[in-house]
Structures are given as structure tokens and as C-alpha cells.
Amino acid sequence: VFVDVFSHEISVDTSNGKKQIKTTPAKAVVNAIESGYLETVDKKAQMVMAEINGGELAYRLEGDKEFKVLGRFNVSGTQYVYVDVETGEASEGEQPFLSRFLKLISL
Q: Would residue 6 be called left, alpha or beta, if left means φ above 0 and alpha means ψ between -120 and 50 degrees?
């Protein structure tokens, strides 16, 4: 991690070169919720910076999303979301089996 104290820029070396961090962790949480991938983020859950898609750097967030099963029952499932550190764009990450199943049968 490199911090330029004059320009206030933070960058990280990855396998694909230097990536500038333009999205703060707080903004990553907001983007994940606003995008609809998450409804809540557990404050105790760890936010990790990880390389995805061959070298892109992203925050990995864990949270919950509610599913309406059979059109009647609200069930909460764990979701994982990646938020790009440069663009702030959220995308769905790998999901536990229960969450994939709930998404499949939800209406």
C-alpha cells in the first residue's frame, strides 16, 4: 500500500500493476446496499480487499438480503458482494448454497 501525502492518493500493487483506491470502505458499503445486492451489512463482518477477475482490486463485503419464498415468507440469506476500489461498482460474489437456493425459489 502506497500513500502519497501530497496528492492524498492511495494505491496498491497488484499482479496487474498499480491500482489507485478511489472508493473508501464506507462508500463501498453504501454502493453495495444501493445496488440492491445487500440490505444490511454486519458490523462485525470483515471487509477484505481482494483481487478478482484476473487482477481487478475490490472490497469483499458480507451482508444479508431478504428473499420472499413462495411469495409469502421472508427469509434472510448471507450474500457476498465485490465493490471495485477504482470505480465503486458493486457486483455479486460467490454465494453460500442456501442463498443460491433461496434466490432460485424466491418470487
A: alpha
Residue 107's pLDDT is 59
DSSP, collapsed to helix, strand or coil, labels residue 43 as: coil
Q: Which residue has the cell 471487509?
A: 47
CA–CA gap between residue 18 and residue 63 (Å, rounded): 29
- The label of the residue with cell 440492491 reads 36
Confidence check: pLDDT of 29 > 80:
yes
The span from the CA of 27 to the CA of 12, in Å, is 18
Name the CA radius of gyration of the chain, rounded. 16
Cross-strand bridge partners of residue 52: 56
Q: Could you report the per-residue pLDDT of 32-75, keeping only the tens digit for each?
A: 999 988 888 877 777 888 888 777 889 999 988 888 877 788 88
Give me the phi and psi of 37, to 5 degrees please. Answer: -75, -30
Residue 56 cell numbers, joined:
481487478
